């Protein structure tokens, strides 16, 4: 029987659920629903520290998870809409890496650092001038993001949570967080470059 989750993990995931309660269409994300790439750097760094196997060993396990925010990436309006869905992505990352299977896959200290920083990023997306309410993630895109993470969870389960399957997912999360539309609009070419920079692509 697996050991119970560490108290720190339960607190982190519980805090994320508290931040995320309610429907996606009713949440107020403050002045901005996303973080710029430099502000995401710590989460990306901790994701990088989780790496436990050389990328070339996992090439046969590659798959395409179909990130929903890449659809219509050339349309400024659609990219701006996606910006407000970043908190939903962060909540899903917390659920994924706060799971029991994840705790069995990674060193506990490195995993706790990642979860702590992602939770901090989620809190940062809620900060803004008092009484100022910005747009929220549209229900269709929020649902598509949750479906994207369900595909990732099913992939891990189908692969038996093997080391290479987690490495593929870790790399996918790095690309997903670095390439997610930020407050400052970027050109489609620059966005595609950040998404395709992984050695597993």
Description:
By secondary structure, the protein is mainly α. It has a single domain (7-15, 24-51, 62-188), classed as Up-down Bundle (Growth Hormone, Chain: A). It has helices at 7-20, 41-49, 76-83, 86-97, 100-105, 108-124, 139-158, 163-179, 188-195. Helix 1 (7-20) packs parallel to helix 6. The model is unreliable at 1-5, 7-32, 128-132 and 184-197 (pLDDT under 50).
List the helices and strands and how they pair.
Blueprint: H1 7-20, H2 41-49, H3 76-83, H4 86-97, H5 100-105, H6 108-124, H7 139-158, H8 163-179, H9 188-195
Helix pairs in contact: 1-4, 1-6, 2-6, 2-8, 4-6, 4-7, 8-9
Tags for this model:
201 residues; mainly alpha; Growth Hormone, Chain: A; globular; disordered N terminus
How far apart the termini lie comes to 37 Å
Helix content: 55-70%
What's the CATH class label?
Mainly Alpha
Helix and strand content put the structural class at mainly alpha
Number of domains: 1
DSSP strand content = under 5%
Count helical runs: 9
Order of helices and strands: HHHHHHHHH
CATH architecture: Up-down Bundle
Shape: globular
Work out the radius of gyration.
16 Å
DSSP E strands, number = 0
Unreliable residue stretches: 1-5, 7-32, 128-132, 184-197
Main sheet characteristics? none
Summary of the model, kept short:
By secondary structure, the protein is mainly alpha-helical. The chain has one domain (7-15, 24-51, 62-188): Growth Hormone, Chain: A (Up-down Bundle). The protein contains nine helices and no strands.
């Amino acid at each position: 029987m697996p050991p119970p989750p560490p108290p720190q993990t339960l607190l982190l995931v519980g805090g994320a659920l508290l931040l995320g309660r309610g429907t996606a269409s009713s949440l107020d994300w403050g002045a901005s629903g996303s973080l710029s790439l430099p502000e995401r750097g710590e989460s990306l760094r901790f994701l990088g520290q989780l790496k436990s196997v050389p990328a070339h060993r996992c090439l046969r396990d590659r798959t395409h998870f179909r990130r929903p925010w890449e659809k219509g990436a050339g349309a400024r309006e659609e990219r701006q809409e996606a910006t407000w869905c970043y908190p939903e992505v962060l909540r899903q990352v917390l659920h994924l890496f706060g799971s029991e299977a994840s705790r069995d896959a990674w060193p506990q200290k490195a995993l706790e650092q990642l979860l702590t920083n992602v939770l901090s990023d989620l809190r940062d997306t809620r900060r803004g001038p008092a009484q100022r309410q910005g747009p929220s993630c549209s229900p269709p895109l929020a649902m598509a993001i949750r479906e994207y993470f369900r595909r990732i969870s099913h992939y891990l389960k189908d692969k038996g949570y093997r080391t290479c399957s987690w490495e593929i997912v870790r790399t996918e999360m790095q690309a997903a967080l670095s390439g997610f539309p930020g407050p400052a609009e970027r050109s489609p070419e620059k966005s595609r470059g950040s998404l395709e920079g992984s050695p597993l692509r």
